[in-house]
Specification:
Distance between the termini: 52 Å
Helix content: 40-55%
CATH class of the largest domain: Alpha Beta
CATH architecture of the largest domain: Alpha-Beta Complex
Radius of gyration: 25 Å
Structural class: alpha/beta
Number of helices: 21
CATH topology of the largest domain: Spore Coat Polysaccharide Biosynthesis Protein SpsA, Chain A
Largest sheet: 8 strands, mixed
């Protein structure tokens, strides 16, 4: 029997999708995410059904003009007893199904059809994830203190000494429709019988339990196999690479901006670039809608045309520069404050000087160059890395108008601690040392991106002041690596250089030499 592809979108009363971000970095990325997710499903399967309430349907169908084959407004009948029960509309959608189906979240992006063996399963999910102390287990303890009712399968799983697991619902469905009717009814009972306790718990985390953990526990109790897209078990805090848009479709064909990925502006910018590359009319439509409503876009987002040169940098309204200043204020007690501030002042002056030359009329071609660079850069990674057999002979060069600033404190890292939503930066410690900051000018209101790079990255960029083939670069880089490593661990050396090159291409610091912009 043919499987139905479905999505769910529900807008709470009083929410404005043009001002509320729905868990994303900013509202425009939320709408762009929906567009890209829907359009890829439609491209690959040609028949995608939307379950929504009327406000959500007006947005996706009437305003964004997404090509859903059918719209079901049954979610008008759903009243959320708590505004943070964001998974409940999905569970309600599951309960309505009478034929085999696959539900695909609006932050999931597929770039090739699913394997038929996956779709043949009685039950289907993205993957099985394992609870860790910092996430699921802490929430479990809170629920056990507060709740008076648990479904039997949940109770048995909680009482087991085995670390409990759940099924990630980025995709969820299957051919056993009767299971979903029972599962959905159980989820509503789970919520309703604990309704008075919702104000005392982390409701956001509870969504994961009544959707993903309940699904796993009920399937386990019934002895039913769950077909999964990713075979490996993944810790609930261990997801990686699910936001790597630059690797689609040649290295990755499935992305899911779970949790922090959709709150990370860098990842959102890559997603927006992919929408712009594949479906420019939808990208431009979303930008135009925000402009028409006089709503300021994220200052880090793309512009449709070259930004205007200015007479000076607007420091007061530049949120990137403000983030840097916040980083400079927060000097740890163990660091000598004068040294900390002096180093920041030197770094900041160099940064402003560079930005002035890029954006303030000293180079009148900069705005046009940056606009063309952004359009071209969407294909750089694919051109260089899609075909490994051609890689060694590819010629690369450092992008013009990039700057390296050395400092005694990691200003780029501290900036990203306030800007990025990934664990690496959230745990960053402030220490005095030797740091290298890469500045890349951008065609945005903020005007630049800032990255902390290492010595290997810096050497590569210095070599690439002139065009080199990747094989020529590899030979030059050997002078900076110990002989023992080259003789016995050449693959480690090779992977180190390639990893650096890939990151520098994504950051628009290195480009293919064919691209004479």
């Amino acid at each position: 029997m043919q499987i139905n592809y479905i999505q769910t979108f529900y807008v709470n009363k009083g929410k404005d999708p043009f001002r509320d971000s729905f868990g994303w970095s900013s509202p425009e990325y939320h709408l762009m995410g929906w567009a890209l997710s829907c359009l890829q499903l439609q491209k690959l399967y040609g028949n995608v059904k939307l379950y929504a309430n009327s406000q959500a349907a007006r947005l996706l169908i009437d305003t964004l003009q997404l090509p859903y084959s059918e719209v079901n407004l049954s979610l008008d009948n759903l009243n959320l007893i708590h505004p943070d029960l964001w998974a409940l509309p999905k569970v309600y959608t599951y309960s309505l199904q009478e034929q085999p189906f696959l539900h695909v979240d609006g932050d999931v992006f597929i770039f090739e059809p699913f394997n038929p063996s996956l779709l043949a399963g009685e039950l289907i999910a993205q993957n099985v994830e394992v609870a860790t102390e910092n996430s699921y287990i802490l929430a479990q303890k809170e629920f056990m203190r507060q709740f008076a009712f648990f479904p039997n399968c949940i109770k048995k799983d909680f009482e087991s000494e085995i670390p409990f697991q759940a099924c990630n619902a980025g995709i969820l469905g299957g051919n056993n429709v009767a299971f979903f009717h029972e599962y959905a009814a159980m989820a509503f009972e789970y919520i309703n019988k604990n309704a008075e306790k919702l104000e005392h718990i982390n409701v956001n985390m509870f969504n994961v339990f009544f959707e993903q953990h309940l699904f796993y526990a009920l399937a386990k109790e019934k002895g039913m196999k769950v077909n999964v897209f990713f075979d490996e078990l993944i810790n609930d805090n261990g997801y990686k690479h699910l936001g790597n848009f630059h690797e689609t479709p040649f290295h990755r064909n499935y992305l899911h901006l779970i949790g922090g990925f959709k709150r990370d502006e860098f990842t959102c910018i890559q997603m927006a670039a992919k929408l712009r590359e594949l479906y420019p009319e939808y990208y431009e439509r979303i930008i135009a809608l925000f402009h028409k409503k006089n709503i300021r876009l994220s200052p880090c987002g793309f512009l449709n045309e070259p930004r205007q040169s200015q007479n000076k940098i607007d420091e007061e309204n530049n949120s990137h520069l403000q983030r840097l200043k916040i980083a400079a204020i927060n000097c740890p007690a163990e660091i000598e404050k004068e040294s900390f501030q002096n180093d920041f002042d030197i770094f900041y002056r160099q940064l402003l000087s560079f930005l002035t030359s890029c954006h303030c009329g000293l180079d009148p071609q900069s705005p046009e160059y940056l606009h063309k660079r952004d359009l071209s850069s969407q294909n750089w990674y694919k051109f260089l890395f899609a075909d490994a057999s051609l890689l060694s002979n590819r010629i690369i060069v450092r992008c013009p108008k990039t700057e390296i600033i050395e400092s005694s404190f990691n200003w780029a890292g501290l900036f990203n601690k306030y800007y990025r939503k990934i664990d690496y930066y959230s745990e960053l410690k402030i220490n005095k040392g030797e740091y290298i900051n890469l500045v890349v000018p951008e065609n945005t209101d903020n005007g630049f991106s800032l990255y902390d790079i290492d010595k290997i990255d810096q050497i590569i960029l210095l070599f690439l002041s002139e065009p080199l083939s990747i094989s020529e670069l590899m030979v030059k880089m050997q002078d900076y690596i110990e002989d023992e490593v080259l003789q016995n661990h050449y693959d480690v050396f090779k992977n180190l250089i390639f990893t650096s090159l890939k990151q520098l291409v994504v950051k628009k610091a290195i480009q293919p030499f064919y691209d004479n912009i």
